[in-house]
Amino acid sequence: MGDLFEGLPPPSANPQPQENDIFAADPSNSGKRELSPVPSKPSPALAPAPAPSPAPAPALKSALKRPKLNESNAQAAVPERRIRFKTTTDASEQQVIEAMKKISSHIGSPGKFSKAAKLAIQLIQAGSVKPSNSDYFFSILESAMSSPTACTDQSVRADYHALFLAAQDAADCLNKRQKNQLTAWTMRAVVANDLFTDDSFLFSKTATQIKEVISNLPVATESDDLEEATALKDEKESDGADLQENQELPSVADSQVSKTEESDPFGLDDLIPSAAKKDDKPKGKKDVTKIREEEEEENRRFLKLQREALVTCLEIAARRYKTPWCQTVIDILVKHAFDNISRFTSKQREAIEKLWASIREQQARRKQGKSVNGKLDVNAFEWLQQKYATEKISIRHAVGGSGDRHCEQWLG
């Protein structure tokens, strides 16, 4: 039997799947007709290689950017070691004390105050101020306030404000006397400096705070006036008196020792228990009375410092009376101080009376239409009205601008 496929064209590379499926699905044709072998696809080795596509142009990358690693390279890459610097150090107690001593020695000079104040604020924020070193921290504040008027200087005003505002966080570590002193200093360094603000809300808030402190003051007594008078007299001689007292202290102590040796040369008084028991009770009473006297003295000293700080605040507020939006607040503040003038001492009462007289005089000028400088206080409309009263303006707008009312024709 001859070849059935003789004379037929060779099979195409893509056989028709429909014909193969028909023969494969019909079992009756399985014995009658044999399927021709389906030509296999050419192997990849024999197939012609596709033309390589041109490589894309590399994208411009910044030299500062770190190249991204592929996933395979990222897994194989060893994690890099990075150097990390320790920004905080756990200073010992002795190191903190030495730092406080150094800050205290430099904070008194105006040129070094800003840097020293920032270092002191860092100590407060780091929690280095503790009851064990509170005396050294208080010496920093004491050196900063060695000059009471330095805190209102324009060059260091902001640094004083920041230092004593941060010092409130360390107030719990101070004793009662130091807390009272810090409160008085805060009135000068924080409250008084807030009066220099350009914010009307803060200025009004500060004035309200000053009024509350004035209302909480007790009424001044005659002893307060006498104490103030004696303090003013002895202000210049205080340094010499302190030196004399320091020189006399050793001689007084030596004389007391010699008296005790003469009265009890063999030291037998210490062996007598009855005398010791009798002396214990009055000694305890003396201690109680001494503590009370010290507390009263501390209260008087704190009131004195507080009154002086309040007078300073009133004087600073009165200087800002030239600012129009400050005038109403200053009127109310000084009027409140004048109404409570009995809470201040005699010299302070005189200062408040002068302030109130100056404020009333400026109020009268304002009612007359004059400013603080004595000139007429005019608004924008009145100023323009006064300016154009002498100007020559034509009734024809753009014609005759010189005021002669002559028409000029421009015929080109």
Distance between the termini: 119 Å
Strand segment tally: 0
What portion of residues belong to β-strands?
under 5%
Calculate the mean pLDDT score and round it: 76
Helix content: 55-70%
Order of helices and strands: HHHHHHHHHHHHHH
Q: What is the C-alpha radius of gyration, as a whole number of Å?
A: 48 Å
The shape, in one word, is flat
The main pleated sheet reads as: none
The helix-and-strand class reads: mainly alpha
- Counted by DSSP, the helix tally is 14
Low-confidence stretches: 19-25
Biased composition (Pro residues): 39-57
Biased composition (Basic and acidic residues): 230-239, 276-293
Region (Disordered): 1-80, 225-293
Biased composition (Polar residues): 244-258
Task: Describe this structure as you would to a colleague.
The chain has 412 residues and is mainly α. Among the domains are: 93-194, no CATH class; 300-403, no CATH class. It is 55% helix and 0% strand. The chain is built from 14 helices and no strands. It has helices at 17-25, 71-76, 93-106, 113-125, 134-144, 157-166, 176-194, 200-215, 222-233, 238-263, 273-319, 327-339, 346-367, 380-388. Helix 4 (113-125) packs parallel to helix 6. It starts with 16 loop residues before the first helix and ends in a 24-residue tail after the last helix. Residues 19-25 have low confidence and may be disordered. Residues 244-258 have a biased composition (Polar residues). Residues 230-239, 276-293 have a biased composition (Basic and acidic residues). Residues 39-57 have a biased composition (Pro residues). Residues 1-80, 225-293 are annotated as: Disordered.
